[in-house]
Amino acid sequence: MMEPLIDTTWRGISGLAGGVIYLLLKTELSPRRAVTVCIISVLTAVFLGRAVEQLSPVPLPQEAIGLLLGIAAIKIGTAFADGTVFDVVRRWLLGGKN
Fold this sequence. Notes:
It is built from 4 helices and no strands. The chain is mainly alpha-helical. The longest helix is centred in the middle third of the chain and has 25 residues, at about 30-55.
């Protein structure tokens, strides 16, 4: 009965740790953006943690998966917000031409 709650809690804590690591690397963020970063990392780790754990070819502990998901979610989210993902896709589709 408590097992799913404990798993979800550990994933959330691991995702929060991923968000905090990102905040330590990006010190110029505003407080509002910092809170958003942590919320995104926790939600990603909680909701995608089980799926990634089942699909992973390498058996990783749930804490490591949560930490990696938290960091990955922030990096992907900021890439979309900055527009860098769209630049990469555009360059790829155009064959390296701007």
